[in-house]
Specification:
The complex is a heterodimer of chains A (about 1050) and B (about 550). By secondary structure, chain A is mainly beta. Chain A has 13 helices and 55 strands. In chain A, a hairpin with a 6-residue loop joins strand 22 and strand 23. The chains are: A mainly beta (about 1050), B mainly alpha (about 550).
Chain lengths: ~1050, ~550
């Protein structure tokens, strides 16, 4: 094939009027030529692109008054009269990029969209250093809730919900499509935000249904940087951030602790049979007393200490140490981020390459997340009609595993030292690390500094994704695209728990590999018929496959800490048991979409997808997911010509069905389990029924309706988008709780229904648009109402995580997902209420709970009720962007309202004197202060009973207003240095917080309480730092 | 309009695509699902090795006997002692005060859920194996009968525990394979005894199983006989005999229990006792009593006086009760936590004869210990204990060296058989049957001789003497709760001896705020069962109730 052939054939098309060739040049506002700008003759499909001098030639019909449309990414599109030797100056455009949005299997002009699609570009997503794309989304897009689940834990992945939670036991996470690879794993943590050009959030069914079985939770499309035609461009960005503890958890100090100890022991007999061996008070002690604990107490004169701590020897004592564990655990830290990318190419081949390094440090010592990323892309024009684009990216991330460690900051006695001095007078304690059991009332809690020196755990992730896509232009209107893409993930957990005082040492290595491939073919047909009709159609088919394999192993009984997890064979455990599993799942899909536009006024989009999934029963493998949407651009109507100021007015409506198949493989099958059973001193293999199967298992589907309005007034300076949606999920893939008398307890069944409905408001305003000063504001507000419409076969509520020490929640028909369940704490029994207390076997000073059914018993199920909600009623963001001469600034404020959080600090108040505890214990009941929520002090570990339930006392209003981020940047005048850009900035994140909640943060959960249905449970949560950063962006 | 060349090119390209599509495989096969790591209900078991695995599977729930009760420091054996009124804890994480104040309910942490789930898991495992074992083609008829006898004995055991603890319970004897019939109402406990427990055990006793001791933890005919004797003895008492007066009545839910005389004088009671006597007589003399040290020595697992035990192996499947029986936070052991939650109450301990060998230091109890090397490398003396702790669960190597115990838990040991034999013979004589003096005292006196206590004459034997001896010998072996319930009698703590044995109704244990009434004869039904099985009603007096109950 050669170019002559094509040219001759193309010239055949333009036959009737004598054509005229005109020549022109496209430049930017500085007069520099723009290469690669698209120039088309308006109303035709004829087009060309500018060369490296910005020059183009094009043939127009001489008998018509032809117009040329010039467009290029990053500039405002212009339409000009076709004149020879014209020079067209394009204006930079922030809006320019947003004109084109990425949708499933293609792109579309924003004005042509029928569905609800929101876009966020790199400049607003990465306006400060962020570790993951979720952080950048927070408060920016209406309908998108981002919950920082691990709060400040390095590498913590936020939970993202688009228009509410659809489902109970399947994932409600959105689908991530990165450069066309569907369902990229860990996109939130392994993708470097600096690599991103733009993100689109597909919200309604018209937009998501093209992803059929995977579209129900919304889709996040991510487009990464690619090569450019023209001068090679090198960008570097780097930053350093300081993380600072913002709020405090008030643990009891040594004086408070000793006061509580003395009080509790004195009250002990009232609440139980006291274990005298734990009573250190000299006069009453049958065990040791203060005088026998020289490692913790030192002698003082009477009156020299606030309390009279008397030893058996008759002398007075005071605690030697007063350790603030929070101060030792959480220290300011510094994070770093570097990213460089190179982009360039010519007309026939474009390339880009990038390298990124992120070192995110947590507030807790030795807690960090590191990520190394690399990407290469190539776009090659193989022939005039065949393009190839490829990309390959690699990411390695490593993070420390800090599960549960934060708790010891509040649990360890403040009277302990980190490590005892090497003093022979304290005998065996010399040089030892302080642990709770050194004070004989304490359980074995190791102090955090000690734990940090003995316990190491890391998670490593390696991810390689790549794709090759071919785009064949069959005719000017018809093209065929095919891609083959892979996503390979290797996960590895390495952990070692050291020989903590006589312990064995345990090393663990767990690995998981996953491999995903997709192979898709789709035809695209684009046709304009006359002036009025525009048709775009797409038809495709796809195969995908997903494989996984796990191998877990651990060993213990190490004779030394030397080996850690590096030589797992060095352990001498009697019988370490490795475990492994593997599996696969497949999807086979057929999909189609038609867009039809009449006179640019009336828009119609219809999509359909048939997905077949291996995960379902033989009779339900295939599901059909259709959608349809219409839009009316009212502003294009004749009668709107007189309406001044309204640039754009569009009304949209859509409906459609999407599916959810995010369950494990093989769940429809009835399993026979296998395990080792010890008999006669040896392990033997036994088999037994395990998983309950369900051959009728089928798709969960979500039907969504959406109506929207888009309004642009004052020449596009104010843009408003309003959407109302209603979604209902049916045939939920529910883990139906079943009687344990006949079953293993649950089975995956298609039961139940959930609805989500809500409003979304997005307002963008160019408040000031002066030559020197610009101020743009974006406001997003989301209101979602979730309701469970139906549950399992009995309609019975499902209780989740019942019992003390949990944020107990309930799934109940008529109530939203994420409702907290518990007793109502009325306070404490007063002295006058002694007889009432006795009805419950209690005493004055004990906790008083509401006895809902007045049966004289307190029972969680029978007396409990809904006591809070873990998803907010309203959330949003207020985002401002300023520009003054060479300065730029941004301010992002987030707000969340109508939400509760559970604080499960059980040992703070309920389990008194079991461990350190919080200083709210000081508000405990006393005869002179009976109006309190906290039971009278008593020695939990000295033999006195206590009550601990999930209850109203641990639920608080978690509404907040947060200073999400603020940035000030300055761009240096760099033309003289032959550079394109040097910008330096300082920024602050999480720099203020207005909230009523106690604890470190109103958002998220402690690491071990991360339940997607109840994202607000704090049991000694990792603190969320304030982050202050300095960074530079340099372009050559 | 287009050159042929281009069209040809396109079709060349398309041909390659089509080839890839074909290579990807046909659609139907593409979506087929074949699990790799798990067998399914479609798997056919035919070989002897598969048969062996079918027998072993149902044993797995036995080891859960000492499992956790979902309450920090609380292990399931403790939840069988707290309701007797003779237990103490030095650590109050466990909510013993709820037992002491009659505040327990079906949602009280995991006590009742876990027992329910463990025993029913055992039942399901057995039902599965019983259905599959006949398909083992490599086995002879006798081998299949032996295998069935073994598994049916286990099923009887799980049901025996369920009905003693909960009363009427849902009954399944087949594999539940469809999800539409999983909710079952409770079946009368009498029917479960009559149709499952007794037939299963009688099948085992008449099977080709070896009529010998079990030396490897597996069921033998001796095991089946021990359980069956206990079943017969229990059926001669309550609640079976009371239910038999009006089997159609909903006793457990109504709570209309009132009978309190023991022994029960009925033809069926006598018949059961005679059958019990037959089986006990087979076991009598087949074992010998060793020393009390044997009881806490893992080396003596499945030997000596052991008859039927939950099997453990240190570091593989650990006996969890060991740290619970240690003095709380005493720093004497290598265990991460010493719970102090499995302790006989002091009045119980004081009811032993001071001369009883069992309460001498380091026989069945101990009073002091040394510090663990973990806390004190020189193993100095630990703090003085405030009370007596159980030495019968003192696994020396676990406590001082490994922190993991492989000590078996005894369901039946010879001393229990001896005491049952005396009880059966005394009861039969009380009901007018001819029993020789020697037959009556031969069991109990062997037990007393080891405790260095004087032998009883036949005239000394009465219910107080028998139950006292059971309390002394089988202390905290999870026997007293069943004894209280089947006899409707409770021992009254005393000094040097139990002061009396009195009716269950109206008995108020020391430290309890209430007197036992009908509701205390049963445990509350698992709260999760009540919620998920709309057909299952709650026992009298307990929460949570079934909706509409």
């Amino acid at each position: 094939m050669n170019d002559d052939n094509i040219n001759s054939s193309e010239s055949d098309i333009a036959n009737d009027p004598p054509p005229v060739e005109i020549r022109g040049k496209v430049v930017d506002k500085n007069g520099l030529p723009l290469e690669g700008a698209s120039v088309t003759v308006a109303g035709t499909s004829r087009g060309t692109t500018t060369n490296k001098d910005g020059v183009f030639t094009i043939t127009v019909d001489s008998d018509k008054r032809a117009q040329l449309v010039i467009s290029i990414v990053g500039f405002k599109t212009q339409t000009v009269d076709a004149k020879n030797n014209i020079t067209i100056t394009l204006e930079d455009s922030v809006e320019g990029l947003s004109d084109i949005v990425v949708v499933g299997y293609g792109t579309a002009k924003k004005s042509d969209l029928v569905g609800s699609v929101a876009q966020i570009k790199a400049d607003k997503l990465v306006d400060r250093p962020i570790a993951n794309v979720g952080n950048g989304l927070q408060g920016k897009i209406a309908g998108v809730q981002v919950v920082n689940q691990g709060a400040g834990v390095p590498g913590g992945k936020p939970m993202i919900r688009i228009r509410g939670t659809n489902s109970i036991n399947t994932s409600s996470d959105p689908l991530f499509v990165v450069d066309g690879i569907i369902g990229v794993a860990n996109a939130l943590s392994t993708l470097n935000p600096e690599d991103i050009v733009a993100m689109e959030v597909l919200k309604d069914a018209s937009a998501t249904a093209i992803y059929g079985a995977r579209g129900a939770n919304g889709v996040i499309m991510i487009t990464t940087k690619r090569g450019v035609n023209g001068k090679t461009q090198v960008d570097y960005s780097g930053s350093a951030s300081r993380n600072v503890l913002q709020r405090h958890l008030y643990a009891m100090d040594a004086d408070q602790l000793m006061y509580v100890y003395e009080q509790a022991m004195a009250n002990g007999d009232k609440y139980g049979t006291i274990n005298r061996a734990k009573d250190f008070r000299g006069a009453t002690a049958s065990g040791i007393s203060y005088s026998e604990m020289p490692w913790l107490f030192e002698k003082v004169e009477k009156g020299d200490y606030i309390l009279d701590l008397v030893g058996k020897d008759g002398n007075y004592y005071k605690p030697i140490y007063n350790t603030n564990w929070e101060e030792l655990a959480f220290k300011p830290s510094t994070s770093n981020n570097h990213h460089v990318d190179i982009r360039g190419g010519g007309e026939n081949a474009k390339y880009s390459a990038s390298l990124g390094y992120t070192d995110q440090r947590g507030l807790m010592t030795k807690s960090w997340f590191k990520r190394y990323t690399g990407r290469i892309t190539g776009d090659v024009k193989i022939t005039k009609w065949l393009d190839m684009s490829t990309n390959i990216s690699y990411a390695r991330s490593q993070e420390t595993n800090d599960d549960g460690i934060t708790r010891s900051t509040a649990e360890v006695w403040s009277i302990l030292p980190v490590q005892y001095p090497n003093d022979p007078n304290i005998g065996i304690y010399a040089n030892r690390w302080g642990t709770n059991s050194d004070f004989n009332v304490g359980e074995q809690w190791y102090n955090i500094v000690f734990r940090r020196s003995q316990i190491f755990a890391f998670t490593n992730r390696d991810q390689t994704t790549g794709s090759i896509a071919l785009n064949a232009k069959i005719t000017p209107d018809l093209s065929l695209k095919t891609d083959f893409s892979v996503d390979y993930n290797a996960y590895k957990y390495n952990g070692y728990s050291g020989k903590l005082y006589g312990g064995n040492g345990t090393a663990t290595i767990n690995t998981q590999n996953t491999f995903y491939w997709q192979n898709q073919y789709y035809l695209n047909y684009d046709k304009k018929v006359g002036d009025a009709h525009k048709i775009n159609a797409m038809l495709g088919l796809a195969w995908t496959k997903y494989y996984w394999e796990n191998l877990n192993t651990s060993n213990s009984v190490f004779f030394s800490n030397f080996y850690e997890y590096h030589n797992i064979g060095a352990g001498a455990q009697t019988r370490p048991v490795p475990s492994s599993s593997d599996g696969e799942s497949s999807l086979n899909s057929y999909f189609a979409r038609v867009n039809y536009t009449y006179k640019n006024k009336y828009l119609l989009t219809a999509t359909g997808r048939i997905d077949g999934s291996s995960k379902f029963g033989p009779n339900s493998k295939y599901g059909f997911f259709p959608s349809a949407g219409v839009a009316w651009r009212v502003s294009q109507e004749k009668f709107m010509e007189d309406v001044k100021g309204v640039g754009e007015l569009k009304l949209r409506a859509s409906m459609g069905k999407t599916g959810n198949q995010e369950i494990g493989s093989y769940v429809s099958q009835t399993y026979v389990g296998v395990g080792s059973v010890v008999l006669g001193g040896s392990s033997q293999t036994g088999i037994y029924p395990s998983q309950m199967g369900n051959p009728d298992l089928k798709w969960e589907s979500t039907t969504q309706y959406d109506v929207g309005l888009e309004l642009g007034v004052l020449d596009g300076r104010i843009n408003l988008t309003v959407d109302y949606y209603y979604k209902v999920t049916k045939d939920m893939l529910l883990d139906v709780p079943l009687p344990r008398s006949t079953t293993t307890g649950t089975a995956k069944m298609n039961y139940g229904s959930v609805e989500n409905k809500g409003w979304e408001f997005g307002l963008g305003a160019a408040i000031i648009d002066g030559a020197n000063f610009k101020w743009n504001t974006d406001i997003s507000i989301s209101l979602n109402q979730n309701k469970i419409l139906a549950l399992g076969p009995t309609g019975a509520p499902i209780y989740v995580q019942t019992g003390a020490g949990n944020g107990t929640s309930i799934l109940k028909v008529g109530e939203p997902i994420g409702a907290f369940f518990g007793l109502t704490r009325l306070g404490t029994y007063s002295t006058e209420e002694a007889s009432l207390a006795a009805r419950y076997g209690m005493l004055p000073g004990d906790l008083k709970f509401l006895d809902r059914n007045d049966d004289g018993k307190i029972d969680l199920y029978s007396d409990g009720g809904i006591i809070g909600y873990s998803f907010p009623k309203v959330l949003g963001g207020f985002n401002n962007y300023f520009k003054y001469k060479r300065f730029d600034a941004s301010l992002n404020i987030q707000f969340v309202s109508g939400v509760n959080k559970a604080f499960v600090h059980e040992s703070a108040e309920d389990r008194q004197l079991v461990s350190g505890g919080l200083n709210s214990t000081l508000q405990a009941w006393r005869p002179t202060a009976q109006n309190t929520m906290i039971a009278q002090m008593r020695p939990g570990n000295g033999g006195a009973y206590y009550q601990s339930y999930p209850d109203t006392h641990m639920i608080s209003d978690a509404s907040f207003i947060r200073g999400g981020s603020a940035t000030i940047g300055y761009s240096f005048p760099v033309q003289a240095w032959k550079m394109q850009k040097i910008r330096a900035y300082i920024s602050a994140a999480n720099f203020f917080l207005i909230t009523n909640v106690e604890g470190y943060d109103p958002e998220g959960s402690s690491l071990d309480k991360q339940y997607s249905l109840v994202p607000n449970v704090d049991k000694y949560q990792y603190p969320n730092p304030s982050i202050y950063s300095f960074g530079v962006n340099v372009s050559f | 309009m287009y050159s042929n060349k281009r069209i040809i090119q396109f079709f060349k390209y398309q041909a390659i695509l089509t080839l890839i599509v074909i290579m990807t495989g046909s659609c139907k096969k593409f979506l087929e699902e074949v699990p790799t790591g798990n067998m399914t209900d479609q798997t056919v078991f035919t070989t002897a090795q598969e048969g062996a695995a079918l027998i072993v599977g149902p044993y797995r729930s036995l080891a859960s006997w000492t499992g956790g009760a979902d309450d920090w420091g609380n292990y399931l054996p403790a939840t069988l002692e707290y309701p007797t009124g003779k237990a103490y804890t030095s650590d109050t994480h466990v909510q013993i005060w709820k037992f002491q104040t009659n505040q327990i309910s079906g949602d009280l942490l995991g006590d009742f859920n876990n027992q329910w789930n463990n025993w029913y898991q055992g039942v399901r495992d057995c039902n599965f194996s019983i259905a599959k074992i006949p398909g083992i083609t490599e086995w002879s008829d006798a081998e299949i009968q032996s295998a069935l006898a073994e598994v049916r004995t286990l099923r009887a055991w799980y049901y025996f525990c369920l009905v003693r603890y909960f009363g009427d319970v849902p009954l399944t004897t087949t594999v539940v394979s469809t999800l539409d019939s999983v909710q079952l109402p409770r079946t009368s406990l009498k029917q479960i005894y009559d149709e499952v427990i007794i037939p299963d055990l009688e099948f085992a006793v008449s099977s080709p199983l070896a009529d010998a001791r079990s030396s490897n933890g597996r069921v033998t005919k001796h095991v089946a006989r021990a359980i069956l004797a206990d079943v017969y003895l229990t059926c001669a008492g309550y609640p079976y005999q009371e239910v038999a007066t009006a089997p159609e009545k909903n006793w457990c839910v109504d709570g209309s229990w009132s009978a309190s005389t023991y022994p029960v004088n009925s033809a069926s009671a006598k018949d059961f006792l005679k059958k019990a006597q037959t089986n006990l007589n087979v076991l009598y003399g087949a074992y010998t009593l060793g020393t009390y040290d044997d009881l806490h020595d893992p080396a003596k697992n499945n030997s000596g006086e052991a008859i039927f035990q939950a099997q453990y192996l240190s570091g593989v499947t650990n006996n969890s009760i060991i740290p619970a029986a240690l003095p709380g936070l005493s720093h004497v052991s290598m265990f991460g936590d010493e719970y102090g939650t499995f302790i006989p109450s002091t009045p119980y301990f004081k009811s032993y004869d001071p001369a009883d060998k069992r309460i001498q230091d380091r026989q069945m109890f101990y009073f002091s210990d040394t510090k663990s090397t973990k806390y004190d490398p020189s193993q100095g003396p630990a703090d003085k204990f405030g009370m007596a702790y159980l030495y019968k669960f003192y696994d020396q190597s676990a406590i001082k060296v490994t922190g993991q115990s492989g000590l078996n838990w005894s369901f039946y040991r010879y001393a229990d058989i001896l005491l049952m034999l005396t009880e059966v013979n005394w009861t039969l004589r009380s009901l007018g049957e001819a029993v020789s003096d020697d037959d009556m005292i031969k069991g109990i006196n062997l037990v007393r001789a080891r405790a260095l206590l004087p032998a009883y004459r036949a005239t000394d034997i009465n219910l107080l003497a028998i139950m006292s001896e059971r309390a002394y010998e089988l202390v905290f072996e999870n026997k007293m709760l069943w004894d209280q319930r089947r006899t409707r009698m409770c021992l009254v703590d005393g000094e040097g001896q139990f002061a009396a044995i009195e009716s269950f109704f109206g008995h108020r244990p020391v430290d309890f705020s209430f007197e036992f009434g009908p509701m205390n004869l049963l445990a509350p039904i698992s709260g999760t069962e009540i919620i998920n099985n709309a057909q299952c009603l709650q026992n009298f007096g307990y929460l949570p109730k079934q909706s509409g109950q």
